[in-house]
């Protein structure tokens, strides 16, 4: 028992050090995507993009209980991160237009060689798309539209009622004004539009993320705010997202747990969470989820 207390105190102190380091890193270098591989590892980046899209489609199919047809659909990705390989892959699958919006222009300098590598890989998957034509799409803003703006304004970037499908991977947990983003999503998406978003609820700093995934939930809001920077995990829990989506006209919300703590692991750390996160409604066992919702306006 004494040991459990010691270990938890250690994690609490270690987590605060990681929060401080993350803030200092942001102040020195700006926002960096926390991927464990760098952009020059083309093979891993390409494999990552392909697996992300395949994962979204798998859950979209589960959600709609059918093989969802994404051909001729207009897609919006929130927070694409370091490259637009996902856009190319989606276009190769026949989507009409791929839009993406971010506050950090991380994908602005992606080397063309990466896209060539990805296209070769897609070619090996024997996709029907004309690879040359896909390459041209990188500069065709009518089909691949990458918007980077500090205000993250969806309504200034995309037409009302224009989006059929919204995808996002490990980005919603970074949004600083999630309510405003969801409110705007309701406007730019069509009635019946579907959102499929993976939300990474875990602590983001490496090492501690694996050892103590719920570390960021040990602190009071006032303490956590000391380390605030744009992009720090917002600590919203699944029910927060659900409530906001419902408030702005979304329905049939389904949450698929992707990564979870065991009951035993959860029970051991629960007494050391900050009190706001005690209640079962926080579903602290969930470390990452896929949230699907339909715009019912
Ligand atoms: C962890 S990265 C994930 C990127 C990409 N989807 C992936 O899976 O590699 C988080 C993304 O959210 C974006 N982001 C960070 N803070 C944000 C904010 N306050 N508002 C909107 N987007 C933000 C980042 O620029 C980045 O694209």
List the helices and strands and how they pair.
Elements lengths: L1 H28 L12 H23 L9 E5 L6 H8 L4 E6 L9 H13 L6 H7 L6 E5 L14 E7 L8 H11 E12 L7 H4 L9 H5 L12 H10 L2 E11 L2 H7 L16 E10 L2
Parallel strand pairs: 1-2, 1-4, 2-3, 4-5
Antiparallel strand pairs: 5-7, 6-7
Helix pairs in contact: 2-3, 2-4, 3-4
The structure holds S-adenosylmethionine.
* Largest β-sheet summary: 7 strands, mixed
Q: Count helical runs.
A: 10
- Please list the strands of the largest sheet in the order they lie side by side: 3-2-1-4-5-7-6
Beta-strand content estimate? 15-25%
**Secondary-structure element pattern, one letter each:** HHEHEHHEEHEHHHEHE
Distance between termini? 52 Å
Walk me through what this model shows.
- The structure is a single chain.
- With 297 residues, this protein is of the alpha/beta class.
- It has a single domain (2-295), classed as 3-Layer(aba) Sandwich (Rossmann fold).
- Helix content is 39%, strand content 19%.
- The chain contains 10 helices and 7 strands.
- The protein has helices spanning 2-29, 42-64, 85-92, 112-124, 131-137, 178-188, 208-211, 221-225, 238-247, 263-269; strands spanning 74-78, 97-102, 144-148, 163-169, 189-200, 250-260, 286-295.
- The chain has a 7-stranded mixed β-sheet.
- Helix 2 (42-64) packs across helix 3 (85-92), helix 2 crosses helix 4 and helix 3 (85-92) runs parallel beside helix 4.
- The radius of gyration is 20 Å and the shape is globular.
- The model has no long low-confidence stretch (mean pLDDT 93).
- S-adenosylmethionine binds next to loops.
């Amino acid at each position: 028992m004494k040991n459990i207390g010691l270990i938890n105190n250690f994690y609490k102190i270690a987590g605060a050090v990681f929060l401080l380091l993350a803030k200092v890193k942001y102040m020195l270098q700006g926002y960096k995507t926390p991927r464990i591989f760098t952009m020059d590892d083309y093979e891993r980046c390409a494999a990552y993009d392909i697996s992300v899209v395949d994962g979204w489609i798998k859950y979209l199919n589960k959600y709609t209980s059918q093989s969802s047809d994404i051909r001729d659909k207009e897609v919006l990705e929130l927070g694409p991160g370091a490259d637009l390989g996902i856009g190319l892959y989606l276009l190769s699958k026949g989507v009409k237009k791929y839009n993406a919006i971010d506050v950090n222009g991380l994908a602005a300098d992606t080397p063309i060689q990466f896209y060539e590598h990805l296209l070769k890989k897609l070619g090996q998957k024997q996709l029907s798309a004309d690879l040359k034509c896909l390459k041209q799409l990188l500069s065709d803003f009518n089909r691949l539209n990458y918007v980077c703006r500090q205000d993250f304004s969806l309504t200034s970037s995309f037409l009302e009622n224009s989006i059929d499908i919204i995808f996002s991977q490990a980005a919603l947990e970074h949004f600083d004004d999630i309510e405003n983003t969801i409110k705007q999503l309701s406007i730019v998406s069509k009635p019946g539009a579907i959102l499929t978003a993976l939300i990474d609820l875990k602590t983001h700093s490496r090492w501690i993320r694996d050892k103590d995934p719920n570390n960021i939930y040990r602190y009071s809001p006032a303490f956590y705010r000391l380390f605030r920077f744009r992009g720090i995990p917002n600590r919203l829990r699944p029910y927060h997202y659900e409530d906001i989506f419902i408030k702005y006209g979304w329905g049939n919300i389904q949450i698929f747990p992707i990564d979870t703590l065991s009951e035993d692991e959860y029970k051991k750390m629960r007494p050391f969470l900050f009190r706001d996160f005690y209640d079962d409604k926080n579903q602290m066992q969930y470390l990452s989820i896929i949230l699907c919702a339909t715009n019912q306006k």
